[in-house]
What we know:
Helix content is 40%, strand content 10%. It is of the alpha/beta class and 250 residues long. It has two domains: 10-23 and 174-242, Helicase, Ruva Protein, domain 3; 35-170, P-loop containing nucleotide triphosphate hydrolases (Rossmann fold). It is elongated and about 55 Å long. Mean pLDDT is 88; it is low at 15-25 and 246-250.
Amino acid sequence: MHRKSRKPEISMLFSPQIPLQLMPHRESRFADFVSGPNSAVVDALKHMPDEPGSHVFLYGDAGSGKTHLLNALCYEVRERQGRAFYLALKRLPKDAIASLQGLEQLDLVCVDDLHVIAGQEAWEEALFHCFNRIREAGGRLLVSSRLRLSALHLGLPDLASRLAWGLRLPLMPLEDDDKLAVVNQRSAALGFDLPAEVQTYLLKHHDRSMTALLQTVENLHYAALTHKRRITIPLAREVLKAAGADQEKQ
Length: 250
């Protein structure tokens, strides 16, 4: 006699330390970006393919959309038959400096998360020379950081000076309506509708950063699929508690 397999409890599905990635997201594009108060920033980035030699320093909090915009610009340049490269500094091992060689031959180089290497002498020196080569070749450069340039505390003054030559663009936090637009966009990409009452619940009882909200959307979808349950406030409450993210005020 075979025992019927039991579904894992929701509390067993998630770990606060191990974010769930249910499905790969489609390639980032400008058309998918909810700009909110950042329309002028997005417009400036859209013009970069038409401006050889343009350099931009983009900064904003975690989850503000920096990575999306860097990848969207790469996509735009490739659509125009250009050569673009996205470099995520936080994913590179410390000995990966050689990956900077030859980037000046491309039409666009996007360097994400500059704050990760701030204070690392070898990386700062290598990036300084890389940025110089890109500038001399007339290439386009987009660099992102969670911190504004003055707060980065780079050890190499020449690197800070080089970054200050171009545009410095801040990404502002989204208002609640714009956050919900992003949340609905992600749930639609996953193939489900997030009920309005659940959206309101998440904004009231959850970390309001976009990174946390989007992770919860994926967690909710996974829990609903695994347990064959509708997405409701009780399910959202269970998922938040299981992921250690419940911030409901007593």
